[in-house]
Amino acid sequence: MCATNEEWFTRAERLFPGGVNSPARAYAAVGGTPPVFVRGEGAYVYDVEGKRYIDYLAAYGPLILGHAHPAIVSAISRAAAEGTVLGTTTTYEVEFAERLQSAIPSLERLRFTTSGTEGVMSAIRVARAFTGRTTIVKFSGCYHGHADPVLGDAGSGTATVGLSHVAGVPAETLRDVWSLPYNDPETLRTTMRKRGERVAAVLVEPVVGNFGIVPPEPEFLRTIHEEAARAGALVIYDEVITAFRFAYGAVQSLLGYTPDLTVLGKIIGGGVPIGAFGGRRDVLELLAPLGPTFQAGTFAGNPLAMRAGLALLDVLAKENPYGELERKAIRLAEGLTAAARRYRLPFTVNRFGGAFSTHFVDGPVRTYADARRADDRLFSRFFHGLRERGILIAPSKYEAWFTMVPHTWDDVEATLRAAEDVFAELARIA
Ligand code: PMP
C-alpha cells in the first residue's frame, strides 16, 4: 500500500508532467518533493501522512471561508442532487448574476466561464471586436491566466518556473501585446501618447496578486484611465484574485475607478471552478447571438458553481468578515516584519487588506523587477521551515498569503512562533 507523501508523489510523476496539474504546485523554485494532500477543513489541510497544516495558500486565492464551509457544502450537495449541469439557462445563473451585479455595478452585462483564463481570453476578444484594434497593453509580472496573448512577461507560475518566454506561443501573438512596467505612469503615458491609437485595451490587475501583493500608486491608476480614455482604448480590470477578497464586491469600488470590463474568478465560485467577464453593455452585446463575436462554454454557469457562489455571497453579506481578515493579516505582517528585523534579514511585507506577500529583499516592492530581486535561497529555506512546522504557503516568492475566516488568533500566533524559529535558522545562513 502507498502511504507516504514521497510514494504518492512518485506515482503522480508517472502521470502528470512534473507530478502536477498546474506548474505553480511543483517545488521547482524551492526544491524537494511536495506533500500530497487528501483533505481540507476550515483553516487546515491534511497531507496523506496525516500531517496538519495551517493553510495560507487558500488554493491560490479561491478560498475565503476556508475549506468545506457548511453552508457551501450544503449548497453543493443540494445542487448535485438536482443536476450538476443542465445545458440551459437556469434560475441560479440569473440569481447569482443579479447578486454580482448589485455588488459590482459596472457589470451591466456579464457572462460566466469556467476559469479566470477563459474570462480574460474572452474579455480581450470582445475588447478587440469593439475597438477594431488588436494591441493589448499589460504590465510586467501581472498574470492573467494561460491564454496565449497574456503569457509574455507574466508573473506567478511562469515566473516561479523561470519562464520569461513560453514556447508554443507564436511570436506574432505577442507582437500585439505590449508589456510595460507596473507603477510606472511615465512609460505608460509615453507609450499611449505615441501609439495609443493601436491599443484595444489596457489590461491590469488593479491590485497585483501575482508578483506579490502590490497596490497601484494613485498616479499610475489615474494614468491608466486617463490615457486609455484619450486613446479610445478600453480598460480591463482583472479582478480574478481581488474581487470579494478585500470587500463585498470588486476592488474597483475601493480604488474609486470604473473599468470598461472586469474579469472575475476564484472566490466567486465558493471553491468550485468558475470565471466571469462583464462590463459595459455596448461592449458585451457584441457577443453572439446578439453580435458578431463568439464565446461559449459547455459548463459555463453550471448550477454547482452558481449555487456555491450564491451560498458564499450569503455568508459574506451576513458576516462581513473583511475587517477581521485584515486585522489578522496586519498582525501577521507586523509580527513577521518585527521578527525579520530582529534577525537582521532583508525582508519586506506588502499587504493589502487580508492578503500579503513576503519578500526577502529590502523594500519597497513596487514593481516586478523589485520582486524578482528577492533572495531565492532565503525564500526557499523560509518556505520549507514553515512547511516542516505545519504552515502552508505557496512554494513561490511571488505568491501571496491569504487570511481566511476560520483562521483563529491562536493560528496566527502559532504561525508567528514558527516563523520566529525559521528566521533564527535563516540568520545563520544569510
Ligand atoms: N487572472 C489572475 C489575476 C489570476 O491570478 C489568475 C489565476 N491565478 C487568472 C487570471 C487565471 O485564472 P484560472 O487559473 O482560473 O484560469
UniProtKB/TrEMBL annotation:
InterPro entries: 4pyrrol_synth_GluAld_NH2Trfase, Aminotrans_3, Aminotrans_3_PPA_site, PyrdxlP-dep_Trfase, PyrdxlP-dep_Trfase_major, PyrdxlP-dep_Trfase_small. One of its GO terms (cellular component) is cytoplasm. Its main location: cytoplasm. The modification N6-(pyridoxal phosphate)lysine is found at residue 266. It catalyses: (S)-4-amino-5-oxopentanoate = 5-aminolevulinate. It comes from the Bacteria. The keyword Cytoplasm applies. One of its GO terms (molecular function) is pyridoxal phosphate binding. PROSITE patterns: AA_TRANSFER_CLASS_3 (PS00600). Its EC number is 5.4.3.8. GO terms for biological process: protoporphyrinogen IX biosynthetic process. Pathway: Porphyrin-containing compound metabolism; protoporphyrin-IX biosynthesis; 5-aminolevulinate from L-glutamyl-tRNA(Glu): step 2/2. It is found in: Cytoplasm. Belongs to the class-III pyridoxal-phosphate-dependent aminotransferase family. HemL subfamily. This is Glutamate-1-semialdehyde 2,1-aminomutase. The gene is hemL.
